[in-house]
Amino acid sequence: MAYPVALRPESFLCFSPVRSKRNARSPRFSMASTIRSSSATKVETPKKPFTPHEERATFISHGNTARLAKEHGDLKLAQICGIIASDEKRHETAYTKIVEKLFEIDPDDTVIAFADMMKKKISMPAHLMYDGRDDNLFEHFSVVAQRLGVYTAKDYADILEFLVTRWKVGDLAGLSEKGNKSRDFICNLAPRIRRLEERAHGRAKKAPTIPFSWIFDRE
């Protein structure tokens, strides 16, 4: 099972604690490549249920990055990521309320869309990023984020549990057969993710170090 990394590379690459040792051109190339790929590739995701998950994930990841930056003495980076985290929190609040209303109006279709999204797995837009060399850049970036505690499988499960509780998915009644199956799938998913969490953390710890062009191939 894949877990998305909800962190914008430019958030810390452009204001890195090792600013004098970073390759300014490489992250810009990665960002431009991601934008081009996103425009050219049709990524099918149910928009509304996906957005609250994405916004809460980016709130968590930028908050954790702010904390790590502060611990390592880069107060400017901590401030930047803290501002982004606050902004993402406002987005999360708004979109969560929108989906909450959708559950009130059309619980059957909404829970089916939610389950469909989780079955397909959430792919953040950055999964298309490319630096001109590493075809698995996002995967390698994800491993580093998991290892550092920026965004982890635990966060992924926590977000799902939060949304299931907030939207009272387990209490939905009067659904179609497909709606009932979708509700049960969603309610049982977070515990499954938690069982896989330890393995994901172990893989991240054992993963070989990879050079990143963003910081002149430092590992």
TrEMBL record:
Gene3D superfamilies: Ribonucleotide Reductase, subunit A (1.10.620.20)
Pathway: Lipid metabolism; fatty acid metabolism
Biased composition annotated in UniProt, kind: Polar residues: 31-42
Any one GO cellular component localisation term in the record: chloroplast stroma
GO BP terms, alphabetized: fatty acid biosynthetic process
Keyword check for Lipid metabolism: yes
Pfam families: FA_desaturase_2
Residue ranges of the region described as Disordered: 30-51
Keywords: Fatty acid biosynthesis, Fatty acid metabolism, Iron, Lipid biosynthesis, Lipid metabolism, Metal-binding, Oxidoreductase, Transit peptide
Matching InterPro entries: Fatty_acid_desaturase-2, Ferritin-like_SF, RNR-like
Cofactor(s) needed for function: Fe(2+)
GO molecular function, one term: metal ion binding
Family the UniProt entry places it in: Belongs to the fatty acid desaturase type 2 family.
Subunit and partners: Homodimer.
PANTHER family for the chain: ACYL- ACYL-CARRIER-PROTEIN DESATURASE-RELATED, STEAROYL-[ACYL-CARRIER-PROTEIN] 9-DESATURASE 7, CHLOROPLASTIC
Protein name as annotated: Acyl-[acyl-carrier-protein] desaturase
Organism field: Musa troglodytarum
